[in-house]
Each structure stands twice: as structure tokens, then as C-alpha cells.
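Q: Convert this sequence to C-alpha cells.
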Amino acid sequence: MSVSACPCGRTGAGDKPVAFADCCGRWIERGDPAPDAEHLMRSRYSAFVLGRVEYLQASWHPSTRPADLALEPGVKWLGLALKRHRVIDADHAEVEFVASRVGGRGQRLHETSRFVREGGRWFYVDGDTR
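A:
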């Protein structure tokens, strides 16, 4: 799937959307490690939008990763709002976000996600939804 603006909604100079290739595409398609938990969370959102299950599994910590991950059919992701990125220490962080989607009816996913860095890579561990 060809994507111009990054699904995560990041903007750059002049409040213009950042291209996928210059944003989450670096982590999803090239395999570069995300530099922090916020970038990993944004790339995971983009992976949900684009249906990149393999990336979602690879960026999920093995201790909490499900054996199989099937995305809900018919879900359309509408946007991401970053609320907070909290660095706990060099290898632990939290990111609070709200993601909007429709799949029959509109829904908001409001989550505070926990991340850990191991071997130079950040991983999603789990999260608390509101």
C-alpha cells in the first residue's frame, strides 16, 4: 500500500504532514529501531492503520505478546492524539494516547501504554485503557 502522509498524524515545518517514509515508515518498512517509546507508539498506530501485523508482533514484548494477532475486519482508524510521553528511566517509558476508529460505530481507544527498551530496541509491553 502506498502511503504519502504518515497515518500517525505527525506534522513538520509549516504544520504540514510528514511523509510516511520519513516518519513511521523508517521503523515499519526499513526495520530501524524507534528512538523512543513515543515513536514506537506512533509507528504501532500506523501499523494498525496499514494492517502490518508482522510489525505489531515484532514490536510487542515477548512476555506479553499474543501467539496470534488478528486485526478486526472493517475497522477504519481515523486519527491519533498524543496526550503524554513520560520517561521513567533509560529503559522504561509510558505513552498516553487517544486513537479514534470506526467499525460499525465510532470508538475511542484511550490508553496509557508501557514500553521497555531491551537490546537497544523499544517494545510495547501492555497498557491500561480508560
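Residues 13-129 form a domain with the Nuclear Transport Factor 2; Chain: A, fold (CATH 3.10.450.50).
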